[in-house]
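The instructor's notes for this session suggest beginning with a concrete chain rather than abstract definitions. Hand out the sequence below and ask the class to guess, before any prediction is shown, which regions might be ordered.
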Amino acid sequence: MINTCYYCEEEANTDEHVPPRAIFPKLKDTPEGLDYRKNLIKVPSCEVHNTEKSKEDEYLLYVLVMSLPSNKIARSQFLTRVRRAIDRRPGLQRRLLIETREVRITNRERMIKYPAHENMLI
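After discussion, reveal the predicted structure:
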């Protein structure tokens, strides 16, 4: 029996992490040394649908980290992984920190800054 891609029904030759593996901290970036990438859920995928969303997955990480500044793991991710990304791509800081707009979260009084870019920042 041939596994098919979760999205397009083509032959699956790889696995896609759901939710994306990119949003979980790398072991070297966790304050407690915990492996948050262990035993992640995977679904069969073709190469195209496993790799074409990489930039979107990275964007999701940035949005989550910026939206949860009081969370210890998010703060750690910003100080390690996001900082490295900014060092590699200087324009990323401008996109993340300057080119944002405020969005009201439904049923909340608090405002958060949300990176509002159609091109997914990258």
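Then share the key points. DSSP finds four helices and four strands in the chain. Residues 72-88 form the longest helix (17 residues).
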